[in-house]
Design a protein that fits this description.
The complex is a heterodimer of chains A (288) and B (186). With 288 residues, chain A is mainly beta. Chain A has two helices and 19 strands. Helix content of chain A is 6%, strand content 43%. In chain A, strands 1, 2, 3, 4, 5, 10, 13, 16 and 17 form a nine-stranded antiparallel beta sheet that branches. In chain A, strands 6-7-8-9-18-15-14-11-12 form a nine-stranded antiparallel beta sheet, with helices on one face. In chain A, a hairpin with a 5-residue loop joins strand 16 and strand 17. In chain B, helix 1 packs antiparallel against helix 3. The chains are: A mainly beta (288), B alpha+beta (186). Strand 19 of chain A pairs antiparallel with strand 1 of chain B, so a sheet runs across the interface.
């Protein structure tokens, strides 16, 4: 086969000939699933007008609903061993990722590395990762409330008034502290984050999360400078992790996907603290 | 107490809405980072003292010093840690802050691919080494000689408790441990 597969008995991922994720097998089913990096160009506004402000530290506001692909072909390297299987992906000179599945885990880990975001074209960019499945979510998705309960979100909708969104992308973005999820009657997909991010589901079956942004204009809400991190010259590089859970939406109580997500959520945000001690002068017996 | 108080004050500052949302000016962001770094460094003295008290059992060998260093590596997020990269023998103490037992896969940046890991009972654990991703290795301002990450499973870390692992680079180790990518598919 020309396809690349990694996984264990709980979850398997397939990558197509272009290096992109194409399929997930978990919980007794195989479903289409793609993942890619894209970016929006930040709006450049006239800050004197309230409704025409630039995208900046306070507001995410793409120039248009148009999204740009970071790459259409991914160079990959695959490492398989007894504890972990990894696919190292390079999307372009400033976006790369390692997708890994540990031997005993029931989820996949996506460790992304984005930056420095190029600005030679004088355009601010807001980079997202997008997971696209065939789940029929019917406009509904869920985001967490500060790591506690999950809140139901409906695309192009507000609970207490009739809304007509003028900005379809940013108008559907919600804060994600630890988790974003969607499901239909058969399947569920959830992504756990390692930090607070913005996220949305702009099409049924899709989840997207913003991972990094570099903007060249102040949004006039108070900070008084562009989100450009000029102190670091070339711009910042951000590295982080997403954990992907995929499985049946309705399972026996006690072993639900949601329960497993909750456990990993705690372990992701409160991992073991690491302390290193130099043992050069002591053998393992002395140490014991 | 002064160490802990500096961390308390820093965490107080971090409650400001600009710190929570990232809407602070760049110079303020740098100051936040500096305060957190100083506070963490100050509190490492408290952590070292506590860990030394916890780990000094009465059967402790006289060959091992009464007080050990317990260093934190704050650059692990870019796969860099001076102590694990430059020492052929080191101990890793893992403290589990959760109120339940956990299993965690541990990744340690190392300069070579031949390492052995012993658990607290002296049992050798299965390990794997993978290369540090190219894009990370090439980060311009990353000062690290780590080319690999050593992986092992820290099983059954006790709730709000700790376990220590001994990691050493054996004098003789088979070459076939060197990680290589799977053949490319076309």
């Amino acid at each position: 086969s020309s396809l690349t597969r990694i996984g264990n008995g709980n979850i398997k991922l397939t990558f197509d000939t272009n290096g992109f994720l194409s399929e997930v097998t978990a919980d007794g089913m195989t479903r289409q699933l793609s993942q890619e990096f894209l970016y929006y160009e930040g709006a450049i506004g006239n800050n004197a007008e309230f409704l025409n402000r630039s995208s900046g530290a306070y507001i995410f506001r793409p120039k248009a609903d148009k999204v740009f692909f970071a790459s259409d072909r991914v160079a990959i390297e695959v490492y398989k061993g007894p504890l972990v299987q990894e696919v190292h992906q390079k999307f372009n000179d400033w976006v790369s990722q390692v997708v890994r599945i540990y031997k005993q885990s029931n989820h996949a880990e996506f460790e992304w590395l984005v930056g420095p975001i190029p600005i030679e074209d004088h355009m601010g960019k807001e980079v997202i990762t997008r997971f696209k499945s065939d789940i029929e979510s019917d406009g509904i998705f869920y985001t967490d409330s500060n790591g506690r309960e999950m809140l139901k979100r409906q695309r192009n909708h507000r609970e207490t008034w009739n809304v007509k969104l003028q900005e379809r992308v940013s108008g559907n973005y919600y804060p994600v502290t630890t988790k974003i999820a969607l499901e239909d009657t058969t399947a569920r997909m959830a992504i756990l984050t390692d930090r607070a991010q913005g996220g949305s589901s702009l099409q049924d079956g899709e989840l997207e999360l913003m991972v990094h942004r570099r903007l060249l204009h102040d949004d006039a809400f108070g900070v008084g400078e562009a989100l450009n991190e000029t102190e670091f010259g070339e711009g910042l590089i951000a590295r982080g992790k997403h954990h992907l859970f995929f499985g049946q939406s309705d399972r026996r109580p006690g072993v639900s996907l949601k329960a497993m997500e909750r456990l990993l959520q705690l372990q992701t945000l409160l991992p073991a603290w690491k302390f290193f001690s130099n043992m050069t002068a002591y053998s393992s017996d002395q140490w014991l | 107490d002064p160490h802990l108080n500096f961390m308390r004050e820093t965490m107080g500052i971090m409650q400001h809405h600009d710190a929570v949302t990232g809407t602070e000016k760049q110079k303020v962001a740098l100051d936040y980072a500096k305060r957190l770094s100083v506070a963490l460094r100050a509190c490492s003295t408290n952590m070292r003292s506590t860990l030394n008290q916890l780990s000094s059992g009465k059967n402790r060998s006289t060959a091992v010093p009464a007080a050990l260093e317990f260093k934190t590596c704050t650059l692990l997020n870019i796969s860099s840690c001076a102590l694990s990269e430059t020492n052929t023998r080191f101990a890793l103490t893992l403290y589990n802050p959760l109120a339940h037992e956990t299993d965690e896969y541990i990744r340690i940046p190392v300069a070579d691919y031949k390492y052995a890991v012993l658990d607290p009972t002296g049992k050798s654990l299965p390990t794997q080494v993978v290369p540090v991703p190219n894009a990370v290795a090439k980060i311009k301002y990353r000062r690290s000689i780590a080319q690999y990450e050593l992986i092992f499973l820290a099983a059954k870390l006790p709730a709000v408790g700790y376990r220590t692992y001994y990691i050493e680079k054996p004098d003789i180790a088979p070459d076939d441990l060197k990680p290589g990518p799977a053949p490319k598919k076309t």
